[in-house]
Amino acid sequence: MDNQDNVGDFFSLVPSANFGWVNDPVEVQAIVSTLPFQDFSQTPAAGFSENELPDHAYLWDFARQVTGGLLIPQNQLDVGSCVAMGCERAINYTLCAEIANGLAYEHHYMVQEAIYGLSRVEIGKKRLGRGDGSIGAWAADAVKKFGVLKRGTFLNNKYDLSKYNTSRCREWGWSGLPDDLEPEAKMYPVKEIVPVKTWLDAKKALVQGYGISVASDQGFSMRRDSNGIAKPSGNWAHQMCICGYATIGGEEYGRIDNSWGKDAHTGPVGPGEPGPEGFYAHWKTIEKMLKQNDSFAYANITGFPLRKLRWKI
């Protein structure tokens, strides 16, 4: 790393940023072994021909169609809740793609604190103790088994969940989602989850509107170049979201949304005009991240059907 990309520079730019992914292959496999599809390549959606893949896919274009703008940048602040953040972001992109393509859903942001608590307690059984962090597979399993909460107020204003709250995130990370909120979450289950392990499968998922949470120890520069690309740099025990890809200078790059706020990364945002909260990364780097085997695509329709979406290009 050069002086502009070292760890000290990173924390001067994002003083409250935190990590929070726990790398535990045994726990991941315990979840994956229960799934109907243990690899995206086994799903009907994998039947999308490689020759049919376009040179770019931007899930944020569906967000523009549905919300009139980009998704709001996430900021986990000083809690290691990145696993919940990346999970929620991927689900949100899937939701936007499905609404834009005719499904009669409403768009809502989801409560990351609930995903965090469910992953650590209801799925993880408090095995991580009182420290921060979670496992990608735990969060994916949580939203499938317990569902997600949409932002808002609940139970005659007993719970005001309209905004992300770090105290609540830590509290629920130890105690779990309150019992009286579980029925509210179970109204909105994620229908299916599946591991994504290769760049080709990631592209196939994205072009069919499936957001991807990506967990790894790969770090990046905080400064994007003129094409919106961030160089690999250092190590982050971190989960983020893959939400698109583009061809830049004859090479393929994936777009990654981070959860450290709109000002963490600097420089041009790159092709498709995505938000300020992320960066493009080379496909070989992303495939290396995927091969750490704790990354998932999320579907609202059971079974990851093969589908051709209506892209506005």
Structure summary:
Strand 6 and strand 7 form a beta hairpin. This protein has helices spanning about 5-15, 25-30, 60-65, 80-100, 110-125, 135-145, 165-175, 180-185, 200-205, 285-290; strands at about 55-60, 155, 160, 190-195, 210-220, 230-250, 250-255, 280, 295-300.
Question: What does this protein look like?
Answer:
The chain has one domain (18-299): Alpha-Beta Complex (Cathepsin B, Chain A). A hairpin with a 4-residue loop joins β2 and β3 (159-160). The protein is 31% helix and 17% strand. The chain has 10 helices and 9 strands. The longest helix has 19 residues, at 82-100. The strands form 2 sheets. Strands 1, 4, 5, 6, 7, 8 and 9 form a 7-stranded antiparallel sheet that branches. A two-stranded antiparallel sheet has the order 2-3. It has 313 residues and is α+β, with helices and mostly antiparallel strands. It has helices at 7-13, 25-32, 59-67, 82-100, 112-123, 136-145, 166-175, 182-185, 199-207, 283-290; strands spanning 57-58, 153-154, 159-160, 192-195, 212-220, 232-248, 251-257, 278-282, 296-299.
Amino-to-carboxy terminus distance: 37 Å
Q: According to CATH, what is the class?
A: Alpha Beta
The CATH topology assignment is Cathepsin B, Chain A
Structural class: alpha+beta
Computed over alpha carbons, the radius of gyration is 18 Å
The tally of beta strands, per DSSP, is 9
Fourth-tier CATH superfamily name: Cysteine proteinases
Average pLDDT, all residues: 92
> Uncertain spans, ≥5 residues at pLDDT below 50?
1-17
Tell me about the largest β-sheet.
7 strands, antiparallel
- How many distinct helices? 10
**Assembly state (oligomeric):** single chain
Give the tally of structural domains: 1
What is the beta-strand fraction?
15-25%
What would you say the CATH architecture is? Alpha-Beta Complex
